Amino acid sequence: MNRQEVGKLGEKLAQKFLKKKGYHIRETDFR
């Protein structure tokens, strides 16, 4: 896995986690 792929996976996990907590985020916040 290269760094970009890891970053994308991290984004998805973070979004799922934050959505569970009631936060709404944009993808651009992680780039």
Structural class: mainly alpha
Total number of beta strands:
0
Helix and strand succession?
Answer: H
Low-confidence stretches: none
Query: How is the main sheet built?
Result: none
Q: Any idea what the radius of gyration is?
A: 10 Å
N→C terminal distance: 18 Å
Q: Kindly estimate the percentage of residues that lie in beta strands according to DSSP.
A: under 5%
Give the helix tally: 1
Shape: elongated
Count structural domains: 1
The overall average pLDDT, rounded, is: 75
Share of residues in helices:
55-70%
Protein name: YraN family protein
Describe this structure in words.
There is one protein chain. This protein is an all-alpha fold. The chain has one domain (1-31). The chain is 58% helix and 0% strand. The chain has 1 helix and no strands. It has one helix at residues 3-20. The chain is elongated. The mean pLDDT is 75.
Defining key terms:
31 residues, mainly alpha, YraN family protein
Helices and strands, with pairings:
Elements: H1 3-20
Summarize the structure.
It contains 1 helix and no strands.
